[in-house]
Design a protein that fits this description.
Oligomer: single chain
Structural class: mainly alpha
Order of helices and strands: HHHHH
Strand content: under 5%
Number of strands: 0
Helix content: over 70%
Largest sheet: none
Length: about 90
């Protein structure tokens, strides 16, 4: 379980901070400098893919479901991963 949590956090970190994923998000139209011009729905999606805790939660759900974990385990692992990612984000 600990290894799964670390893997989820590492994948999420790369999703948020790696240059290829940043370029992909910009290509899809989610640019930081144009955030104020977005509609309410697009702002929601923008925050979802740029927030480390949010991304960690959803990546954790997807990762653990694909690994064959039971539903309760999926939720617990995702929440713990998201919480730890938030602590790490505050420290960095």
């Amino acid at each position: 379980m600990f290894l799964q949590i670390l893997t989820i956090i590492a994948i999420s970190y790369l999703f948020i901070h790696a240059e290829p994923s940043i370029l992909l998000k910009r290509f899809l139209g989610f640019k930081e400098e144009k955030y104020d011009e977005y509609s309410k729905n697009k702002k929601f999606i923008h925050r979802l893919i740029h927030c480390w805790m949010c991304s960690t939660f959803w990546i954790g759900i997807i990762y653990t479901l694909l690994s064959g974990c039971c539903f309760e385990g999926v939720f617990i692992i995702s929440v713990i991963s998201s919480f730890i990612a938030g602590i790490i984000d505050n420290k960095l």
